[in-house]
Input
Amino acid sequence: MKLIPQEQPGYEETISHSGHRLTPQRREVYDVLLAKRDHPTATEVFLRTKQHMPNISLATVYNCLETLVSCGLARQVNVEREATRFCANLQEHGHFVCGQCGKVHDVPLATGRHLERAFDLPAGLTVTHSEITLRGLCAACSKTPHSKLRSPHSK
Output
């Protein structure tokens, strides 16, 4: 049974207005990102997509993800030196990375808060993009006895 993702408004318009064709492969990759918002890597997206499109290639998934990012329908999430992950949440938010299990969670900004106002920027600087990553232990790992934070540079 295929999960029905919660689509963000404007998928078809955004793709077509960006000069890209509406292909079944792009639609499926986008649906995979929306169905389980766990910040998958391209390989994880490939494996999930392959369940519904057995003939899709990893190269096609990479191309679809690149198109979704360039159209603004998904974001790349880079955590240290790990594989790039993908996020379909387009609201302003940060990420929390568990130092034990490695899971990435969305962290919404408090209502009425704006990230660019949290810093005392020197005069003349303009923020055009920001990425905030918080690190620690997720709820599940916090309950595990002897949980240790892994080094952000270790695999």
The helical segments are 11-17, 24-35, 42-50, 58-70, 139-142. Confidence is low (pLDDT under 50) at residues 1-7. The first helix runs from residue 11 to 17. The domain at 11-77 is CATH 1.10.10.10 (Arc Repressor Mutant, subunit A).
